[in-house]
């Protein structure tokens, strides 16, 4: 990735340049109504005289009910620290950068348009690519449905169900990890998992097999999922609480998930800085959503354990940057002092990815998880209900 390469019209992501990582820093200034403020590197344009201009710092920090002002926590993080979003993330060991704002110089030769690609404006791995694409998607969706409008729809959304309660109940009932069964058509690492994909049929089969909760992929571009699938499953009368499996980068998405019938959302520590996780967890509580905070290594787990109010943590055995899967990661992270803290706080741990056999389930249970999130090994089965019994080595439906 060193140096600049030349590529034709590669603005598929609309990837702008230079960026938050271009050395541009945001400094704290005292604004008065009418002051001009440039567009922040990650967020919407500052509106003079908007609610933030009228609230004190302490009110803002402690009050997620100011949904509109806190909805873009990227802006808040930058605002409070004086550092760019990517600076803040990098200090916390996060390697996933946010999409830079403006594109590199375009060069026209005859009918062709060229663009310089370099390390700053090209995603470095699949997770970064997904996040950059999500940034564009969310910006467009937000224009169509601004937060103020979205909030009104919450009154018409079905009530949330107790996601964490369902996991606890199932664990107590079966004495085995509660199952979060994933409705996933495709993934970047495995391609299409099931051609004859009927999300409602699969969801009902999972429920019949004893799943405590379901995870529904909503990302379209990389997983061939959709919010329509989530809504359809909810409207089909499936009782299992639903996790909206989405790449959340903006608090607006929490409201959107709630409106579309989700009971829980995923917050990925490899993508979100601590302050985002903190605010988003608080917003989730207000919305009645459970937050599954996902980690992959010790540093991420330590960060998440440092954030108060986290009740549900997933250990993803899959490295989302390299696709490598290793289920011993769950054990490694739950050993020693970390495991002790988790037990003391009664946090529910979820073992995620790469679970195919009863031995796999036993190994993560032994490590200390009380729930598992399983996609591929179940979704590929002709009969997913039977697949659950085979995966657990016994019928967990009764
Ligand atoms: O699965 C991928 O290829 C992937 C790539 C980039 C980001 C996320 C990705 N997957 C999300 C998941 O981790 C899984 O869907 C989930 O944990 C279930 O895993 P599995 O049982 O192995 O299907």
TrEMBL record:
Gene3D superfamilies to which the protein is assigned, alphabetical: Aldolase class I (3.20.20.70)
Record Pfam families: IGPS
Gene Ontology MF terms in the entry: indole-3-glycerol-phosphate synthase activity; phosphoribosylanthranilate isomerase activity
Reaction catalysis annotation: 1-(2-carboxyphenylamino)-1-deoxy-D-ribulose 5-phosphate + H(+) = (1S,2R)-1-C-(indol-3-yl)glycerol 3-phosphate + CO2 + H2O
Region of interest called Disordered, as start-end residue ranges on this chain: 35-66
Keywords: Amino-acid biosynthesis, Aromatic amino acid biosynthesis, Decarboxylase, Lyase, Tryptophan biosynthesis
GO biological process: L-tryptophan biosynthetic process
EC assignment: 4.1.1.48
Domain Indole-3-glycerol phosphate synthase: 127-391
UniProt pathway: Amino-acid biosynthesis; L-tryptophan biosynthesis; L-tryptophan from chorismate: step 4/5
Top-level division of the source organism's lineage: Eukaryota
Keyword hit for RNA-binding: no
Keyword match Amino-acid biosynthesis: yes
Annotated protein name in UniProt: indole-3-glycerol-phosphate synthase
